[in-house]
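PROTEIN DESIGN WORKSHEET
SECTION A - STRUCTURE
LENGTH: 295
TOKENS:
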């Protein structure tokens, strides 16, 4: 078994096990390493955060192969499984089949695909008013994704935006059931409300048909124990490393700009020694001893 097989199995276990699991956002190799070092068992490769870090909008302005490159750096930088936020799959069922094969090749453990239209927009912009994909067509996309994987453990999460789009609980459940029948491994149900009522109502109706993943970015006040008691599978902390990096970089840039010296900044940023340690400079020094002629 290669790295894909074991990491996909690890992600599948996180989704399937009875205890609540957590996926922490990362958006590049460095943030992925920090997620792993913090102790998390899995990574959410956030579309929003990757886009923001690349300086573009969460509207498929970065091409899917550019996202794939970022995911590959994250995969190479870590051992824990990565669930890529694959947006709408960057096209139709055929685009998704190719995406799944490429993700497997690069050691990404799974993909989450959402029932919106390409180019997507973020669920929290413009009040979430956005057209959804035709449910039957999207179910075909999920089936196509599942048919494309070589590793039986590769995970396909079907995400419904029905609640975000204001289409109500019944429509969210109808869509989730279609996606389950199409072969989805888990359902991500997203909500933009500041309380967890609608995702909890979804879970109560849904039961245990498939693991349910949630993203409490807006309902962050709900205690995590509530999610565990309700039997949710996985909580995604979706964008908090990108947002913390943004704030930290803003403060450092404006301080250095204003002061034109580094004295007040040096103690507030990570020492270079730590940067080299995270990059694995020691390993390179050892490898040079071993592989370069020693004169
Ligand atoms: C992401 O992190 O890109 C997500 C979650 O898809 S959200 O931004 O809430 O849509
Ligand atoms: Mg996204």
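SECTION B - SEQUENCE
RESIDUE ASSIGNMENT:
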């Amino acid at each position: 078994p290669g790295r894909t097989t074991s990491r996909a199995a690890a992600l599948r276990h996180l989704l399937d096990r009875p205890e609540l699991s957590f996926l922490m956002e990362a958006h590049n190799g460095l943030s992925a390493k920090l997620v792993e070092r913090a102790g998390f068992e899995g990574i959410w490769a956030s579309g929003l955060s990757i886009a923001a870090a690349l300086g573009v909008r969460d509207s498929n302005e970065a091409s899917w192969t550019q996202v794939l490159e970022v995911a590959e750096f994250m995969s190479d930088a870590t051992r824990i499984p990565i669930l890529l936020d694959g947006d709408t799959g960057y096209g139709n069922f055929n685009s998704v089949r190719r995406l799944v094969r490429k993700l497997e090749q690069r050691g990404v453990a799974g993909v989450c695909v959402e029932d919106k239209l390409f180019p997507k927009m973020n669920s929290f912009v413009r009040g979430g008013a956005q057209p959804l994909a035709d449910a039957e067509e999207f179910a075909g996309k999920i089936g196509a994704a599942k048919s494309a994987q070589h590793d039986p453990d590769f995970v396909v999460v079907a995400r419904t935006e029905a609640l975000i789009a204001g289409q109500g609980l019944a429509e969210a459940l109808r869509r989730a059931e279609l996606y389950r029948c199409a072969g989805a491994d888990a359902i991500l149900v997203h909500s933009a409300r500041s309380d967890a009522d609608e995702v909890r109502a979804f879970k109560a109706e849904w039961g245990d048909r498939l693991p349910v993943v949630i993203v409490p970015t807006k309902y962050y006040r709900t205690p995590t124990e509530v999610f565990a008691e309700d039997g949710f599978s996985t909580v995604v902390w979706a964008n908090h490393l990108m947002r913390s990096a943004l704030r930290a970089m803003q403060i450092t840039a404006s301080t250095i700009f204003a002061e034109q010296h580094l004295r007040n900044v040096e103690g507030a940023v990570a020492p270079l020694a730590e940067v080299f340690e995270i990059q694995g400079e020691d390993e390179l020094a050892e490898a040079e001893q071993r592989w370069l002629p020693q004169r």
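SECTION C - NOTES
Residues 46-48, 85, 87 surround magnesium ion (ligand 2) (CB under 6 Å).
The chain has a mean pLDDT of 96.
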